[in-house]
Amino acid sequence: MPFWSWGKNKWNPDGKHCYVTGGSVGLGLALATILASRGAHVSIVARGKQRLADAIEVIESHRQRPDQIFRSFSFDLCSAEGAEAALDAVVADHEGLTPDAIFLCAGVATPRFFVESTAKDLIDGMNLGYWTEAWTSWAVTRRMVQQGRQGKIVFIASTLCYMTFVGWSSYSPARHAVRGLADTLRSELQLYNIDVHLFSPNTMLTPGYDEEQKTKPKITLKIEEGDTPLTAEQAAIGLIKGIEANHAHISADFITELFRASTRGSAPGHNFVYDWALDMMAMIGAPIWRSSVDTLIRAHRAEHAEYLQTNGVLSTHGDPGPTVK
Amino acid sequence: MPFWSWGKNKWNPDGKHCYVTGGSVGLGLALATILASRGAHVSIVARGKQRLADAIEVIESHRQRPDQIFRSFSFDLCSAEGAEAALDAVVADHEGLTPDAIFLCAGVATPRFFVESTAKDLIDGMNLGYWTEAWTSWAVTRRMVQQGRQGKIVFIASTLCYMTFVGWSSYSPARHAVRGLADTLRSELQLYNIDVHLFSPNTMLTPGYDEEQKTKPKITLKIEEGDTPLTAEQAAIGLIKGIEANHAHISADFITELFRASTRGSAPGHNFVYDWALDMMAMIGAPIWRSSVDTLIRAHRAEHAEYLQTNGVLSTHGDPGPTVK
């Protein structure tokens, strides 16, 4: 957004229908709560029914007006059919009209070494990290265009859509794919006046984070030990600020901001001078960071070999395929 | 590679076993031919048997020594099982040992508008643009580690792994995913001394290119009309030069080189000064390019609405899902 339009036409959720996938926990719930407290109608979709019920109670406690509509629905969003069915349910209380804003928060990471990942691990990674977002965006775009409605589609990726390292082979490809889709649609959906944003949070203190710590390789934990995680609320506030500023790519922490500014691709940046300064910092800093991480990884070889041995990773785990004769 | 090691330990395919997926046409065949002419044993895998037979004839005509082993195998590499079965066949004539270098050239693009893409189009895009490479890299990495063998895995993406625009919603996500996987494995496979490269060709004059022109939206054709395609041979030569220079990310044309240098993520760059100069050019040039393309796209709205109308895209095509009541 150029400086002369600061403060003009700031996006305002008041009275809008916001659809939040993965809205029952973590970032999705934090976002749904903020949107409710700012006067939006909120629909959330997730799988677990108890979590959805708990989430709706939290959202209700932020109600501003009696006419706000809060709904929750249990669907699996990993398939085109699931995404369509969820959308049918979500629009039912809104005269069949597509939501004004869609926040694609569903997503799960399961970090592991590549050689201990089964075929299912890799497929799950793509389903939970990419397809949940792709199918809902696909279903909703088509209907928005059919109905001639404008709207906003917000993809949620991760710092790992800009960069990646050891341990993330099932997750980073999915997050990179989300970035590829978001950037394509930012370009393409200009044909229909549909806005597309990409939000990339760094580590967040959510139930999903607790889960991913369980399978995370030691070397990955070590590389990440300097991270200062955000709360889901902090991330959600950063996301909404980015939308208000009409940024194509949004982040809520300085590390991701460095990678965003220095990993532009063809997406619009923020402020030229600001982005240039960050880019120069990253140009010096990123190779230093990478070198130090590469050194850590290479120093980890012996311990890793022992890990593979002790856990019988190469002989028994998962789906090793036929052994070599 | 730092300047003091120029010319040292340059990768040499002579006597090595090179496995080329998608090796029967286009870049894969051009690469297989060059590798054969430089003394490598070459195994190619693709689906079409006639094309494989034709390709082996071409490769044979570049034989340098009688003991070079050239083999072709017909497999579908879109599944973990297919990739494992292909690898079994490929290693059979090499004492079961994993190849010294794997070139992942299989890949097909089918550009289309997002709203006219069926669920199958999007799934095929990910299968043909990502999983063909992911499964083979997964199968081969595991065996390399089991056998304690070093090697080289070369992923092939596209300029569209760095940037993207209208028309590429089924392809760019897959190519971004390949970049995410390649960058993760460049980091992770240091644990086993396995080298990972990513090659990103721009438009190439191949049978695949002729296919993609058929479904490519008019606006996408217009945006690409200034492109100067490479031949598959030119691209293959660029790829091999990049491997000899030990570059993590390799491109064979100036436009991709601009996006590579300005879209670094956490992958190693080339030469600091050279990359910095390109980055500064891209910092000025990329927003200008993007603005001009965005202007083109917005000016295309009326014609596009007519296209959707005339072709009944939103009412009849593909798998529109339930209509809104």
Automatic annotation (TrEMBL), chains A, B:
Listed InterPro entries: KDSR-like, NAD(P)-bd_dom_sf, SDR_fam
GO biological process assignments: 3-keto-sphinganine metabolic process; sphingolipid biosynthetic process
One Pfam family here: adh_short
Pathway where this protein functions: Sphingolipid metabolism; Lipid metabolism; sphingolipid metabolism
Enzyme Commission designation: 1.1.1.102
Membrane recorded as keyword: yes
Annotated GO CC locations: endoplasmic reticulum membrane
Gene3D superfamilies in the cross-refs: NAD(P)-binding Rossmann-like Domain (3.40.50.720)
Subcellular location(s) per record: Endoplasmic reticulum
GO MF assignments: 3-dehydrosphinganine reductase activity
Alphabetically ordered keywords of this record: Endoplasmic reticulum, Lipid metabolism, Membrane, NADP, Oxidoreductase, Sphingolipid metabolism, Transmembrane, Transmembrane helix
Function field: Catalyzes the reduction of 3'-oxosphinganine (3-ketodihydrosphingosine/KDS) to sphinganine (dihydrosphingosine/DHS), the second step of de novo sphingolipid biosynthesis.
Protein name: 3-dehydrosphinganine reductase
